[in-house]
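Batch job 17 of 40 flagged for manual review because the log was empty.
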Amino acid sequence: MAAALLEEIMANYPVGPEIERLVQLLGRLPGLGPRSARRATLTLLKKREQLLEPLAAALRQAAEAVKNCEICGNLDSQSPCALCRDNRRDLKVLCIVEDVADLWALERAGVFKGHYHVLGGALSALDGVTPERLNLKGLLERIEAGVREVILAMNATVEGQTTAHWLSDLIAPSGVKISRLAHGVPVGGELDYLDEGTLAAAFAARRGF
């Protein structure tokens, strides 16, 4: 009851600029609207030693240490990342994903033991995302270095499928096998929101593109 009252006060009355900035920044995170951001802010401020201070320290450390892998585009504190350095993974199979979140989703499902390439987005005329804005650096060189199969693990959205077709045309001259995830991935669905079972089934049933 007290928490609800405090939230109501924050929503309707002026607060300090530090608090307001924290609410605004948290509200920019996926899944957090203004109401959820206010609740998160109140929780952090009430539990400074247990939550706020450790979180601030972790954010500072991440900002300083985390970088994009120079090979695949993954996020890690080292470059090349741990996945690219893992010699147990199959260098001859390359899975192309839109975002690091999709890579993490596939790793959680444990269905892929090859290497990845993170595009950093999907083609979108509406949002002005052109091929020049995607992480295509070194992609063709990686494929030509001995890859036998490229898996296009795009999200089942209009933008994702447009990107998959464009990549297929780009990669086809290399002669490498091109496959994509089966349509067990629902239309409009994004990999990061799918359960491990759905991902595993879609990955196992991939077919030629």
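Reviewer: the log was empty due to a logging misconfiguration, but the result itself is present. The chain has a mean pLDDT of 88. Unflagging and moving on to job 18.
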